[in-house]
Amino acid sequence: MISCKKHVLPLVLLSCFATDTYGQSDPSFANVAISLSEDHEGALGERISLTLSSNSAQKIAQTLTQWSGIEVQHVAKDALTLTMVLRPEYQGEVIKQYTSASFVIDLDEDSTTQFTAAFATQYTGPFSVEEAEKYVSEYIDDTTYIHGFNFASTVAREKSGDCTEFAVLTTALMRALGKPGRVVFGTVIIEDEVGVTAYGHAWTEVWHDNKWQVMDAALYGLDANKRFYLPGSVIDNEGPGYGMSLATGTILMPVKFYDVKSAS
User: Fold this and answer.
1) Residue 228 contacts residue 84 (beta carbons within 8 Å)
2) How far apart are CA 228 and CA 175, in angstroms?
3) How many whole angstroms separate alpha carbon 14 and alpha carbon 249?
């Protein structure tokens, strides 16, 4: 059953970023300017330092204290310098919201239950994060940036979307399987054979093996040397007022990164 509530509050807050994207196989929603330090040579290490530019630098610095693997070195009014690892680990507790159905993560709709039941049939025993990422990655077969923000049931039904839809559906799958999950907005910094690029992105954090882990079905199978995940915000409000969480995600999006280099 498709509830009438799924057709209210159409939002395009995130789709406004859908320009200059990485490619149809890599559904991030915003290109962010990035430049390496003049004294950097060779490939990036698994720990980097960088400076980001944003009018919300102080708010970003405060938000980042929730993740281990990120150390803020200096904060100014419109910039902050930090070091980070590939996949910082959220240190917050598991709360009921991260395990329950909601307005956005609508587990009880028919399309969502059919999607999650198919995975449970395929993987009857313990499964890995990578197996779940692969399942969602292959399930959404129409990578497109035309959507504003879709609920889990809509994504399950249409099999279409960009990184936000991948993250929402992955979160729904994890919760349906009894694993706490939440949708995170931030920036992914990608190093490949061409160079280093940065994109506004969305992914899932799941409580698995007694710790929070990054799950990114949107970029599953991406041929990249390294991917650094810099979190920015979370959909804290999954009810009808979810638009406020999306707005926070746009406000905390860095304008650019510079002086990027390997850190000791």
Assistant:
1) yes
2) 25
3) 8
